[in-house]
Amino acid sequence: MLKKYSEFFKSLLFILDLVLISAAWLSAYALRFYTDLVPVTKGVPFIEPYLILLPAILVVWGIVFKAFDLYRPRRIASHLSEIWDITKACSLATLLIVALSFFLRQFEYSRMVFIFFWGFSILLITMSRWGFRELVRFFRRKGYNLRYALIVGAGPLGQELAARLHRHRELGIKVIGYLTRKEAKVGRELRGIEVLGTYDELPKILEARPVDQVFLALPHDAYANAEKIFRFLQGQTTDVRIVPDLLQFMTVRGQAELFDGLPIVTLQATPLYGWNRILKRATDILFSLTVLILTSPLLSVIAVLIKLTSPGPVLYRQKRMGYDGRLFEMLKFRSMRADAEKESGAVWAQADDPRRTSLGNRLRRTSLDELPQFFNVLKGEMSIVGPRPERPEFVEKFRAMIPRYMLRHKIKAGITGWAQVNGWRGNTSLEERIKCDLEYIEKWSLGFDLKIMWLTLWKGLINRNAY
Predict the structure, then answer these.
(1) Residues forming a β-bridge with 257
(2) What pLDDT score was predicted for residue 380?
(3) CA-based angle 403:404:407, to the nearest 5?
């Protein structure tokens, strides 16, 4: 019965997609020739040639969407992954249709129609999928269209999985119970879910209860039982998913993916690759150029005042550790005596530090000494937002003291960061600062960067810990 419902929904989605693709094609034609968005210079062509091409469009879209497996169940997938799949499929299908149109020499199709059509197809399919998924999730929250799951493993990992499935009721997955290797646990309730039996009782429980999905959440020391369980499940029609006992090892951006059919679990990674990296770099260049142009008179004034008030260079260059542990020279306006570290060596600045110049004290309090770092950003050594870079002498000390300290180098160092706008700058708690840095890397998005920039302007420039 469940399979029949699944096939029905797949057919419904397929028909809806074809209707929306037709609407996108006709809308693109109307937008191009019956609006003033793009002036028409050669007259409005008849719609018949565009209608003749429509059946071919529907065939190509149907084949491409099937090839991209856009009709598979997506109970656990994110909206963003589906949007990305739709974008790739529509882009490929559009290119195929453009190539096909070149063979129809008797008529020249408008390139703008194809561009509008590409955009409309992505937009309409995405909106329809979003609406469809939200409608289905609404009914799942009400208890309809459920799938029943059995979790093999009643330890912390299995209980955490059950808690997350319960928290996301829109997925429509209801856990009916656990299996355990310890007979003493059988019959007990863990977080409101009953332990139905031991691993050996899996065949009996699958026969007696309606189970659509089996989640294997075995602890490391129970993997000796895994082969027997796997062999039995291979002869069943139940969906089987495994949750590896790696939760305690995952740090930032942990994820699982397929590489040529081989499952690979990533324990830690940078969020900046592909388009994310391009977007962040473009934002860095745009904002850095804007800041440097707008503040160029101020930069000149500060440089002159430094020269007039104390001997030594205008800029202070200091070795810092950035992305992937690489060293670079970070620029600052000099705010201390030129020989400030001659006797003390590398030490953190302190409140009322006697090494500061009178002008340097004001520059530090207002964070104006950091302005030259926008040149580091333009060079690609830093980003506007990211964990603040430390001197290599301190890094060696901190990496031995603080667990996961080096993970902050999985992203470019920044002029400002999540830790700084939360008050963790200067001589404050390193543990809290690292916690904020790792939270930033885990949750990175372009919107998060813009939020931190705004908060920096609002409350981050002048800080009681800036000395």
Answers:
(1) 264
(2) 92
(3) 160
* Cα–Cα distance measured from residue 191 to residue 106, given in angstroms and rounded to the nearest whole number: 70
Say how many C-beta atoms besides its own lie within 10 A of residue 408's C-beta. 27
pLDDT digit string, tens, across residues 45-100: 788 888 888 998 999 988 888 888 787 666 555 667 778 888 988 999 999 888 88
- Confidence at 2, pLDDT banded by 50, 70, 90: very low
Q: Is the pLDDT of residue 174 over 70?
A: yes
Helix/strand/coil for 262: strand
Burial environment of residue 174 by CB neighbours within 10 A (0 to 12, 13 to 18, 19 or more) = middle
Pinpoint the alpha helices (H) of 271-357: 275-294, 296-309
| Coil vs helix vs strand at 104 | coil
Alpha helices in 295-429 (DSSP H): 296-309, 358-365, 373-379, 392-401, 418-421
Regarding pTM above 0.85, the answer is no
User: 337, 303, 331, 344: which is closest to 389 by C-alpha?
Assistant: 331
Helix orientation angle between 2-33 and 111-141, rounded to the nearest 10 degrees: 150
Cα–Cα dist 364/333, whole Å:
9
Q: How far apart are CA 465 and CA 467, in angstroms?
A: 6
> Which helix (DSSP H) or strand (DSSP E) does residue 147 occupy?
strand 147-152
Quickly count: other Cβ atoms within 10 Å of residue 18's Cβ: 16
Q: What share of the chain has pLDDT > 90, as a percent?
A: 23
Domain locations along the chain: 2-141, 147-249, 275-460
- The region of weakest confidence among 219-228, 276-285, 358-367 is 219-228
CB-CB contact of 206 with 190 (8 Å)? no
In CATH, the architecture of 147-249 is 3-Layer(aba) Sandwich (3.40)
In the chain, count H helices and then E strands. Answer: 15, 12
pLDDT for the residue 467: 46
Q: Are strands 383-385 and 414-416 parallel, antiparallel or unpaired?
A: parallel
Residue 227 has pLDDT above 70, yes or no: yes
